[in-house]
Amino acid sequence: MTTKTLAWLFIGMTLAMAGCKGDASGTTTGGGTATPETAGTTGGQSGKKLTLAVIPKGTTHEFWKSVHAGAQQAADELGIEIIWKGPLKEDDRDSQIKVVEDFTTQGVDGILLAPLDDTALKVPVENAKKSGIPVLIFDSDLKDTDVVSFVATDNEKGGSMAGDELARLLGGKGNVVMLRYQEGSASTAFREKGFLSAMAKNSGIKVVSENRYAGATVESAQTEAENLLSGLKKPDGSLGVDGIYCPNESSTFGMLRVLQDNGWAGKVKFVGFDASPKLVEGLTAGQINGLLLQNPRKMGYEGVKTMVDYLGKKAVAKRIDTGATLVTKENMAQPEVAKLLEVPK
């Protein structure tokens, strides 16, 4: 056999062996496409762990601690990494914008964001998308921006449920006040809208104040609630309203403090939103008559899971409703309700 013949035989064997193997990118011959070995790896970069940034509105309220717990649970199950970072207070828009910009610069695989402002966060989100980083919005919506998905409570429905309960407690008549949260917060704006729609169905109920804002902290909410209710005192010191509604944890707690400090707690029908140990104490003591609870743990869990599915080229829903539950002193011990009241350590 000549040297030239041996060379051609060697080339032919080499080509045949190559035809039996996949190439280095993970794509097999014959039209098949490889998938990541696990849910937590990036396609085409085998072994690289997915890293998602999860950005809440703030980090102090109990609600966000539950969101974090759910997000971490999903991350552990899926074998990915999450980075939890947000502003300390829920009125620091500039800080949240910077967090989004920093994660965009770092080049994380995806961003999950609960925007503090439904307009101010549009530009940093669009910039992240232009950089090739998909964005999922949770808890509170963003105006006119296409994102992976919106994972949240049906807030308008939740506000309507709160209004229906307060109307039931009042027998369809009386004077009520609503202390709003803060301007630019889409989630609470929808809860306020839903509440007012429910009130409008009751001709015997008059909303005597609905244009005051609590602000981002318990302290600012307490100050605003004190100012609001001090103008509604009767000459004998009793309160001149029959019902109160607050649309989030901090506004509800600030209002509760004022009712307690003035001896009004338990003497007026009071429905709030979200839960914390102090609010659960108020519910147990009859100082709060109802709390509309979201499912923040599910919100965090579904947010992370949905983003991982999207990055894995799976179809995802554009809107995921994580539910709302009316909790009262009568049903708070039920197992499914008690679980919603649990606060992560």
CATH class of the largest domain: Alpha Beta
CATH architecture assignment name of the largest domain: 3-Layer(aba) Sandwich
Question: How many distinct beta strands?
Answer: 14
CA distance, first residue to last residue: 79 Å
Structural class: alpha/beta
The major β-sheet equals:
6 strands, parallel
pLDDT below 50 for ≥5 consecutive residues: which ranges? 1-38
> What is the global morphology?
elongated
What string gives the helices and strands in order?
Answer: HEEEHEHEHEEHEHEHEHEHEHEEH
Number of helices: 11
Kindly provide the radius of gyration, computed on alpha-carbon positions and rounded to a whole number of angstroms: 26 Å
Count of domain modules: 2
Q: What name does the CATH topology of the largest domain carry?
A: Rossmann fold
The CATH superfamily label of the largest domain reads Response regulator
Residues in β-strands, percent: 15-25%
Order of strands in the sheet with the most strands? 4-3-5-6-7-13
Q: What is the overall pLDDT average?
A: 89
Give an overview of the whole structure.
The protein is α/β, with parallel strands linked by helices and 345 residues long. It folds into 2 domains: 44-152 and 296-322, Rossmann fold (3-Layer(aba) Sandwich), CATH 3.40.50; 155-293, Rossmann fold (3-Layer(aba) Sandwich). The protein contains 11 helices and 14 strands. It has helices at residues 3-19, 62-78, 93-106, 122-130, 155-170, 186-200, 218-230, 249-261, 277-284, 296-311, 335-341, and strands at 41-42, 45-49, 51-55, 81-84, 110-113, 135-138, 150-152, 173-180, 204-213, 243-245, 269-273, 290-293, 319-321, 325-327. The strands form 3 sheets. Strands 4-3-5-6-7-13 form a 6-stranded parallel β-sheet, with helices on both faces. It has a 6-stranded mixed β-sheet with strand order 9-8-10-11-12-14, with helices on both faces. Helix 2 (62-78) packs parallel to helix 10 (296-311), helix 3 packs parallel to helix 4 (122-130) and helix 7 packs across helix 8 (249-261). The longest helix has 17 residues, at 3-19. Residues 1-38 have low confidence and may be disordered.
